[in-house]
Fold this protein.
Amino acid sequence: MNTQTAGEGGELRAKLKWLVFSRAVFAALLFGSTLFIHLHNPTQEFLRPVHVLYALCGGIGLLTAIYAVLASRLQGLAPLAYAQVGLDTLMVTLVILVTGGFGSVFSFLYLVVIIYASMLVYRRGSLMVAAFCSAQYAILGYLEFFGILQPLSAGSATLAAAASWTYVVYKILITAAAAFAVALLSSHLAEQARRTRRELRLMEEQVRRVEKMAAVGEMGAGLAHEIKNPLASITGSIQLLREEIPYDAARDKLMQIILREADRLSALVSNFLLFARPPEGRRQPIDLDRAIPETVALMEKNKSRFQHIRIQISGARGAWIEMDPDHFRQVLWNLLLNAAEAIHGVDGRIDINLALGREPYVRLRISDNGCGIPQEHLKSIFDPFFTSKPSGTGLGLSIVHSIMDASSGRMEVESLPGRGTTITLTLKRIAPPSGP
């Protein structure tokens, strides 16, 4: 859903700002510790690594300022997240080189970078960062062992003189294994946290919609009842007049118009009452393997709307739910009708997919390749009488949402203008009834 994507973008922006702040704190601590070492060891042998550390602190501070500006101004933040994490691994490598090289105790900073990378770019990104850190550490060990690169810290012996090649390979493999293990574990936790936040956002949106629709429904239900009574009186009176007064073509035409519009208004009021207070109905087990094809077959008989549209059913089999059969048919009917009306041209397609998760729920996805829904309309599509169609009443999705809510179900919408719309219904799954 577009609103969901926007929410995740705001979440990534907040994480990047938190990372910028943390990096600034790290640069300040590194500068403070470097200054402390410099003041307490003002000998010549410490000047070279201390100067490099000063330069590193300045570089981190400059990058932090650049990141802060970009994080507040850029729209697409994923490339910035990857760039920050990648440059941070290089900074860690430089810190390791300055503080003892391959044997530096600060090699654990690679794991810190991998952990917050999993929070920013999740599993794929954290595994890439783990591979990048492992490669840098391996190159550092290789260059030091063969004397191509020397550690900058004072008193550090060359790796070739201090250890064997077997030890170097062993330490590289252990560090790489730790990096990938941390990447897998932290990314798994980050993915779980992201799914939990997504579920919470969806539930919050559901609660807001229910509260809004409940308020409108309570107000409108009484009004609808008050309209139906005088409307029935008007219809009955006109029918009596048609029977009792002499026939006149012009007058009879006017009466037909009144009756037709009264019937249309009566249907609109009935639909609004169904939205405001959907009846509980007869909850009973429904075999989706039968209910879905039956409704689709009935829809396909409407050649004026479905002549050039192909409806395909796929996914899991053997799913049962508990719901009023008439309500389920009405929900599916309204969604298929909306999908058909969104399709223009002769290459229309509606896909109905049924998915079963590990949890006891059924997810029914209805996707079309129609015109899609503009992002500014997504938050209003469940509001009664909201429609972008010239002849629509704006009650179809409102009624579907009310029925789903009364049936303890959930409804999600994803749409891209020009690409189509996918509506996902989530209903509790039950075991097939036993017996004949």
Remarks:
- DSSP finds eleven helices and seven strands in the chain.
- The chain has three domains: 2-206, 210-276, 284-430.
- The two ends are 42 Å apart (CA to CA).
